[in-house]
Write a structure and sequence with these properties.
Layout (H helix, E strand, L loop, with lengths): L2 H15 L3 H14 L4 H11 L4 H14 L4 H13 L3 H14 L5
Length: 106
C-alpha cells in the first residue's frame, strides 16, 4: 500500500471508529481509486453499507474474499450478513472457517 493510500485508509478507519460512516465511505473510495485491489479497504467499505444496503455490503465482503480468500475479517463480516439474512448454515460454516484461521477474532 503506497503512503498516500495507507494514510487515507488509516483516516477511514478512524472515521469508522467515530461512526462517521459517510465520511469513512468517501475515504475508502479514495483508497480504492489509488489501490483497487486493497482487500482491507473493500472489506471496510462493506462495513459502511451493513446498516443501509446489506446486499452491497455482501458484495464488498465477497469481493475482498476473491482477492484474499482467507481474510478472516471479511469471512466474519460475510458470516454476519448471512446470519442477518437467516442463511444460518452458511453463516455457521463461515464462522467455523474464521475461527480455524484466527481463533482470536471478535
Amino acid at each position: 500500500m503506497e503512503a498516500k493510500s495507507h494514510a487515507l485508509f488509516q483516516k477511514a478507519i478512524q472515521l469508522l471508529d467515530l461512526e462517521k460512516t459517510k465520511e469513512a465511505r468517501e475515504a475508502l473510495l479514495g483508497v480504492l481509486r489509488l489501490d483497487p485491489g486493497n482487500y482491507e479497504a473493500i472489506n471496510s467499505l462493506g462495513i459502511t453499507f451493513v446498516n443501509e444496503d446489506i446486499s452491497r455490503a455482501e458484495r464488498c465482503f465477497k469481493k475482498a474474499l476473491k482477492i484474499k480468500n482467507d481474510y478472516p475479517d471479511a469471512l466474519y463480516n460475510l458470516a454476519n450478513v448471512y446470519k442477518q439474512k437467516s442463511f444460518l448454515r452458511e453463516a455457521i460454516n463461515l464462522y467455523k472457517r474464521v475461527f480455524q484461521i484466527d481463533p482470536s477474532i471478535h
